[in-house]
Design a protein that fits this description.
This protein is α+β, with helices and mostly antiparallel strands. It is 21% helix and 31% strand.
């Protein structure tokens, strides 16, 4: 792609991922606010995702986590977040880069976002580096705001 082209798709993607980051930062700082809770879907094989092998075996491509009542040690930085969750009674730590997230929803606010992700070798290296953003394949929308019902999988 020529260097003199503005990549609006990547700008929108970064901005909307910033919404996810801001919501998680406020939750990390103040704890869950009111009835707000989050469904976060992410690609488990994306670079930077860290989780126990036994969890990855059960979710080799994509996984949805819920941050509501039982989560601990939520830490948010510019590139992603880490959190401890309970899996079958055992506490497990996960690290999820924002670039790996494919969906974010807050059912209490009836708010949801869907993102496109791509393999690391498809990311446009000429785009600004922080935070990481993925470009969408031609003809597909990125950073789409969706109704909560559209976010939920059938």
């Amino acid at each position: 792609m020529p260097e003199d082209v503005l990549r609006y798709d990547q700008m929108v993607e970064r901005a909307l991922r910033g919404v996810v980051r801001d919501a998680l930062e406020q939750t990390a700082k103040h704890g869950p606010l009111g009835d707000h809770h989050f469904y976060i879907t992410f690609r488990t094989h994306q670079p930077g995702v860290r989780m126990a092998d036994h969890i990855k075996v059960r979710h080799p491509d994509e996984m949805t986590i819920v941050l509501q009542h039982q989560f601990w040690d939520l830490i948010v930085d510019d590139d992603g977040f880490s959190v401890a969750l309970s899996f079958s009674g055992a506490t497990e730590h996960l690290r999820i880069p924002f670039a790996a997230i494919t969906g974010f929803a807050d059912p209490s606010a009836k708010f949801g976002l869907q993102f496109q992700t791509v393999d690391a070798d498809e990311i446009d290296d000429t785009a600004p580096a922080a935070p990481a953003a993925a470009s969408a394949p031609k003809g597909e929308e990125t950073g789409k705001v969706v109704a909560l019902d559209a976010f939920r999988k059938k």
